[in-house]
């Protein structure tokens, strides 16, 4: 604030006005205009100066009151010698004349200027004389001998005269200093000299301070207040800026089209020696540059030609020049005379200014083509490198050493570092093998150079799997021999890499040696320590020669040629190009290069350096010889010219734009110019948040460490943006400032919004078929924007050009024009803007974002240093991309594999996540605190979900966090019951290699009454003992629970409970007890509690992975479940004792089981502590009831017990006991079958959303649509409600007839319709369901008449030991009661003879059951309808039944049509409760209740159709009962229907889709009819039934595989089928090897579990190509292929939906279940999963033999199996899995083309 007086009044000048003191009070005045304050302040200052001058004159004249007119003439002041000095003649005098002081002493006479005094003179009175004491520049001078009692007034006058002189100088200095600070900006270079002057004035006047006049004291105070200047420079500069802001306010209002802001104005006024302006995106940086340039001209700070403005690029220079010219022209008109019309500031680029300097110094050179055409330099370097390599061994060895990063695995601190290194550095040997390590690469290259043919990681004998537990692949196999080579990563002491268990690793070495010894193969071994000692190659050579391997060394010319063949030379020439550019940008000498390599610890330096320096020197020499320069030379030579004085820079002010991207070379040029100019000023503008050009030399630390590297500076920040809104500013600013190396800025915006304007959008879009996900989503976003803002500009931004090309193609292939869209790369978008920006390419991997395509190590070492924050430059690039949008920014990302940046953005509240899938990921993700870039994210393996750090294993530590319960259901730790003294902690040990599996150790930890931990166990080495162990445990646990109802059985994982369900069914034992324990929630799965309660950073949630959280490391001999299997297998092969007491093997297994049980107990206690700390309370499951009273068994249970007792009564015959046991198992079949319905229901009530989403029996996240409730049909009483669900959810392909709505368990809802493709669910319910629901299937079916019939059969058997003849024969599996000759006649018959023979055999049945097996296309329905017609004609009553009404209707209608065709009419009756169009289309009689079946049918020849419920009703009988699809009908249904049929004909094929079964059942009761009777036979033997041995569908080349692999070679085909063929055109022939047969085509993809976009894309190409082809049918008629002629089959609904997006309506698509019974000329089968073992529903589903049979056999002519190259990788876990793998191996071996889709040969092992 400035103060003064004006017209006798005091005033104070402020920022917004001033105050004056009028009439005894302060009055505030406001500025009327900018000139108002200037005029008044100037007048006040002038009046004040006039008054001050008058007063000074008066004082000098001797008037103390300051009235000059009354002052007498001025006289000098003199003090003479006193009496004694006069007497002695000694000199003593003091004289003051004007400002000169003369002192006379005995030492002589001295003259001084008053200003030299440091204090006022002091008088010292003595006895004889007075003494005056003077301080002259710190020296004391005494004048003795003056007269005693000198005139006091005279002395005062003398002192006052001195003080006035000093005061005048202080006032004058203050005035001068104030004017200096008011006129110019206080620069750092001025401070030292100014401080010296200030210090001198203060020192001179300090002693006079008390005597100074008031104005001088004020002046002194002011001067003292700014000293030292270095401490007060900030305040003084701010005062200057404020003053200039006012003085030049008119200029700042008109310098640009819009008035400059306060921040911009401040930035313009800065005028230090070095200035740094940090400008956020959209804050008007260009406006500041233009205004700064014009301001310097306005203020006459320098001449225009002394100003140099440097832009980063030519385009930026042109824009700056145009803007400057425009504003300068406008100001020349607005402020005439203030701006010159001739001289202009110079605007240039660095290269241009460098070139101009060279021209002015006479340097003659032309620009090299290398600079004008960068690709020419790469070509030249490739040529030079190729020539260099032709030099033989040394250059090639250097090159081989340079191109592969040296890697010592022992130097990695953890597995994460090791895996990241090998993820970013792929090692490919000269043999073309991608090897796993650097040392393996050295071995592979050495073998190639020595001419030793070899194979990398071949499959070894599968027998090794049993010993190792994994598929053994030795490192190398010497071709044509039995010699293998393994390289082991151990040192001489046997130690391994830090993260590897050395003991286990060495045990693996021992096992491998044993395997080779057992198999008679030779194992050569090399070791890590040999490489360390430089003996690796010598060891290799010695061992190979010892075993007789011949060496055929390749010449160096051959190696050179091989490098070119692999394109190594051209690829690595680019690396050398980047290195040379970095060297020249940084002006590095050869020594500097070595220093940089050492600093970066670049291990390949000894190989890379000689090649680099050779190429560098060659490059420089080529330029010199040609007299040419490149862009770097322009600056390098310009620097030399300036430093040598050849060029004198004319510029005093250097303004640098985009300073954050400046290179060291350019900075050197600036420093050279500044060093040659007097009082120069460097003015730098940039944004460290937008530094994105390090790859071209940009050195960000010059900005972030500006003062340390360049010098002290004045700084300003532009933090108010006019481009984007506050939402974008918050997201982008917070994102980039997570890097602590970045300057902190607080961005404000001119536009403010309330809602987030940054959107994260899912890539999936089911409404857009035929397009890629990302392209379809971008198009959808563009359409949405156009609906609301038709004129807004839209830009598509991507990290790479190829990403943008994909989007362009998506628009080009669609009806959307997209012609007005703008496409920018993230780098290219800098400085640009659009209303809406859509950001794409956010994926993980090498070409994802952030980019994991790391710069090559040598180039990285030579480039400017980078801060250590992860992906720091990519983070700044993300900021640039986000801040291009004015209104909205859309980020399109894959929710399944979002990039690290997307995951980070989702963690904030400032983005709008437009996908439920993202929301689930967002809520479930937590930052890993143990690694830099890791987040805990959801993963899947083997169909199971778990959370792990995406940088796993990161720092080697595991992160966990407590998960809160979900809002709509209980979750997590609330499922953990309170502690009970009777609790059990249970674990099993199983042996899967036993047929059917064997649970051989049942262990359980519990506490006795004294609280001592005890162990309960049962061993079972065979199935009888297994049954006993199971029974003992369940009965013990059940009784314990009855006595302690609060007790629970804790286990980890679902395995134990699954075993109980399986064994209770297998043995028919403890069913009630198990059911009660399950229904009452006694079993507690800790795995589910951990999964739902905690987020853990581990690759799996096994108890071994998490137990380090609550207990120490295990020390048992057996370390894992897999190892226990191997150990137990060894014991079974060679027992070392009968039990654990005398067997070391069994004791070790027991110790392991005990430790598992104890760990379960300790985990329970730890979880309970967490539950208590978090305040969570156990929520008891619904449905609990009083268990204190023992329930009496009902009639059926008693019947089962009586039958089982009879089966064990050895007084009965063996047949009776067998039949009793079979019947006993059938009695409770339907109860067992329905139990899982309720078990699943209670289990799913506790599931999380993710688990429900992945559960095939559930539909999660169903959201009510806007459609109003409606009547689905006139027959439906309740309203129907429409819900939408994610069509990508996998659910079993069967109709949901009823569902439970979670949270509304009182009643079920009826399902009106499910549309899996569109994701629509229609529910009918009395009361409206909630808007968002999760539903689970309600599968309960009341057995009714079936159970009653079986019960009656059982009671009758107990009473008289008799069964109906058909049932008895069938259960005993005896030959059907029919003349064997008739069956032999059928088997021998061919062609047209076969049908009459079949009819004759059926007529020959004598109260028995006949099996008719009909493979695909064999005419099963045709045969059955003709047999039924013959029976009807014979007056027989015929029944037709099956599992579904659809199957029954199909056979009935076929028979009816046949009757009509032959002019026969017979009554047809159908039992069906609901309405059906069947009764409208055909004259069938309808009976609505199965109980009325016999009262409503005709007594004579007729056809009756009903399900098993109808035919199980007593009261009537049919002569023949035909059971269709008997391979899917259960055995109990057959038993229940037998009393109502004289003869039964079972039609079906057990080798196609099996019966749907959900319960576990004892014995054979779970079998279908055909499975039971045929006992795992692939075909029915001729003596047991009829096999329809000819297909009328499949071409022989399709049928051959089906016949051989499925039907034991018995299935032939009709000759006419071979007329069929697909006529492939040229395009199709490139994709498909032939137009007939089966073709197994492989493509590359990884990580897919139930859907593969790669397969979708390839199948779309197949369908498109086939759509243009023709085919020939059986009659030889050629016709065009249509969409109906192509079936595309996939195992999962998810993949079906993805295929629909890619293919659209060009083919029929569905799962295997949907297409059973259908056919087409072409079938394409998509396997979907990358690895079968990791697929969503496991190997037993994906590789199921029956499902493959159904899928392939739909094809008439051509079946194409599209599968991943890695589908069959990984070892099978069970014996039955091995069979499935083998089937697909044979399919692959026999039907793969020699080259796969990728052109690569496959070794099937």
The DSSP helix count reads 64
Which range does the strand content fall in? 15-25%
Q: Output the strand order for the largest sheet.
A: 53-52-54-51-55-56-50-57
Structural class by SSE content: alpha/beta
* Whole-number mean pLDDT: 83
Number of strands: 67
Uncertain segments of ≥5 residues (pLDDT<50)? 1-38, 59-73, 766-772, 921-935, 937-947, 949-958, 1183-1189, 1795-1805
| Major pleated sheet | 8 strands, parallel
Report helical residue fraction.
Answer: 40-55%
The end-to-end distance, rounded to whole angstroms, is 90 Å
- How does the overall form come out from the CA principal axes? elongated
Q: Which oligomerization state do the chains in this entry correspond to?
A: single chain
Rg from alpha-carbon coordinates: 48 Å
